[in-house]
Amino acid sequence: MSKYWSPAISQLTPYVPGEQPKVDNLIKLNTNENPYPPSPRAEEAINNYPKERLRLYCDPDATLLKQALADHFQLQYDNIFVGNGSDEVLALAFMAFFRQDQPLLLPETTYSFYDVYCKLYDIEYRQIPLTNAFEIDLEQYNQANGGIIFANPNAPTGRLLELGKIERLLQNNTESLVIVDEAYIDFGGASAVELTRQYDNVLVIQTFSKSRSLAGLRIGYALGHKNLIEGLERVKNSFNSYPLDSLAIAGAVAALEDDEYFRETTGKIIDCREWTTNQLEALGFDVVPSATNFVFTCHRSLSGAELMSYLRSNNLLVRHFGKPGIENFLRITIGTYDEMQELINTLKQHPDISS
Amino acid sequence: MSKYWSPAISQLTPYVPGEQPKVDNLIKLNTNENPYPPSPRAEEAINNYPKERLRLYCDPDATLLKQALADHFQLQYDNIFVGNGSDEVLALAFMAFFRQDQPLLLPETTYSFYDVYCKLYDIEYRQIPLTNAFEIDLEQYNQANGGIIFANPNAPTGRLLELGKIERLLQNNTESLVIVDEAYIDFGGASAVELTRQYDNVLVIQTFSKSRSLAGLRIGYALGHKNLIEGLERVKNSFNSYPLDSLAIAGAVAALEDDEYFRETTGKIIDCREWTTNQLEALGFDVVPSATNFVFTCHRSLSGAELMSYLRSNNLLVRHFGKPGIENFLRITIGTYDEMQELINTLKQHPDISS
User: Fold this and answer.
1) Which terminus of chain B has a smaller tally of CB atoms within 10 A, N or C?
2) Which residues carry this modification: N6-(pyridoxal phosphate)lysine (chains A, B) (predicted)?
């Protein structure tokens, strides 16, 4: 606390990301990272980038990356916005669109950065509970609002909404913007990017951090009508001209081009998720159906906190949210088969888990 | 324009960075980049970084870089804040400190991003004119304010303020924060970082983009009392957890360690600045005394716009601000000796310039 702070700053409750441990012998299943390295083409692009050019500012428009994304999604260049991870894209989008008179609507259980942004910008918001099956019920979003945001698939639940339901929401909710945060869409969901061709009230946000294995390089993007992109550019260019560095741009372009590697690695994660789900169920866990690279699961008799600490003491790091309603759940990232085998074997050795 | 924008967005006037031309045959003296490549150690650190680790999130605290900066400046770890270029550090600092009831004070002619931030956050501000010799007169800042910011050396003028004057301001202005933006301090100025040890109302912001030749990697930092750093961290962690990617952290740490290279390259730029100044004066230019890697100069008979376009047609890119009061000035980055020789030779060939 300091008398020099802006008055609002002492009211903030910053987001706490999952732990990035400094030791190497842990199996890290706590931050939904991809267990596979980035595409060899991304590595090559970074290694081959002429480092002497780092003396120059990067392209403030990240033109090559925007064009690569436009080609990839068969959109126009002016339908694409890029930023320093999808977190920055979200942070700029909240500023650009959600500072309205009416409250923002969002799920009660979802990515916990959303309400942090609301506090940062003093945006009123209303949290809509999930169903008992952890589903987002979009019918409940038919009420006065200054914007709607949800993750699809949702986090930390992993559940996917059908595209038809999202389209119905867009048809009913024409006076405010709907943001669909698709950080996990590449692990089995149908993307709302198709809807951006037809509806100007939807913005889709995706990331290179999960399915492209580039969490350490910080690249996110938004797809939508060019007027929405223009709003984002206005805010971005009033905040930071060059949020993506030259190596990130080069790496991302190369990663995007390697479709074969992308399909192979996401395919392995999807298969392993199904295997892990079956194994967990056999050990007495309930597993929420997942379309992501993680599972959200609770044991029928053991508490989440106890399980997390048991796993931690066996060098397995998973994420536990102490929030009411989900305090018994663990969010477990899907790693390699070997890592998930280790998880399952460790759980089998717990005295109160019978296999 | 879109009905989905937050109402304030249509009022923004985004910052326009200097052109990053896509052609290679230009001598680029328009964005104050360093003409020398980054330290070979930074290149090596980036090349040797294990790219498979990019699948993991970077360290949200950039611990290695903060510790390296703390060691370098003989400060404590909690006196250091890092961000995605000094622009992001400034953007977060305006949010953290300058949203006050009283207006922010800043020079009328200075880094033009400052008033962009004010508009973004709806901060009232008052611009204080420079003296006729383009000096910041800190006596004029003794008035009610919600914060003070200036660049030292100032941009685009290049003029340096003595540390004693800044210290006097800190002694007189104890109720609000003073930010000293030292993007160019390494080209001959005395840094206010010394004052941060003694005064809790000063924050110093520096960058790796100029003197460390890493504009393309986006690394800025702030130095100050730990309570100020805590305010910045609260905002940063409510905005984006990981603004510095893993390669930027690795490259910056290595660049900082190479003090010999740093002294050699900044020394060459300082020498070349003095040579360029003498040459320009001999050609009928007035040159504002500079403590930066650029000179701010106007010709006694030719207009700034005309000179800029003459140089551009000869593949020399310099920066011209069309603003009243400085419309006849050019801001010319100091490049290599060869580049500056080319600039001088080109000017000598202008029909209205006699050597």
Assistant:
1) N
2) 210
